[in-house]
């Protein structure tokens, strides 16, 4: 329910990637909190029939943390990074060759004697989610093949979501009550479902 344009575009991209038996292009989802960015990431993985590894920008403190995650991905897996705008720049730099070339550049040693080793990674899909699009550096932003903005839901969509939630929770809900909750939810399913 809701985000119809985003879902339609993602369905086309997913069908194309599955038809080619390739990883889906990297996806950036942005918009206000509570609109379904994380849910969409998991749905993408389910629709692709692949595994998802989820983390957040603040949790990846060092380049080694990201390297450990990347080297444990399997072919076509999804790596979901929530709050991707909070990655530190050194970690972000490691992502660039991983996203572009499916490679991890490792520096061994320091100074003039340092050597660079390139480790091949399996093709994977990075899905980044952010509420702060403007805080993403242009080099990172430009490496996403698909960028989608999630918008607030209309009242009818929120009512439908609430009906579904009530059914799942086996809670009796009156139409007038659902309508009032939807009206006050500020277009955000997370707020409506509290």
Automatic annotation (TrEMBL):
Occurrences of domain AAA+ ATPase (ranges): 23-154
Alphabetical GO biological process terms: DNA recombination; DNA repair
InterPro entries: AAA+_ATPase, AAA_lid_4, DNA_helicase_Holl-junc_RuvB, P-loop_NTPase, RuvB-like_N
Keywords recorded for this protein, A-Z: ATP-binding, Nucleotide-binding
Cross-referenced SMART domains: AAA (SM00382)
Gene3D superfamilies associated with the record: 1.10.8.60, P-loop containing nucleotide triphosphate hydrolases
GO molecular function: ATP binding; DNA binding; four-way junction helicase activity
PANTHER family per the UniProt record, alphabetical: HOLLIDAY JUNCTION BRANCH MIGRATION COMPLEX SUBUNIT RUVB, PTHR42848
Protein name: AAA+ ATPase domain-containing protein
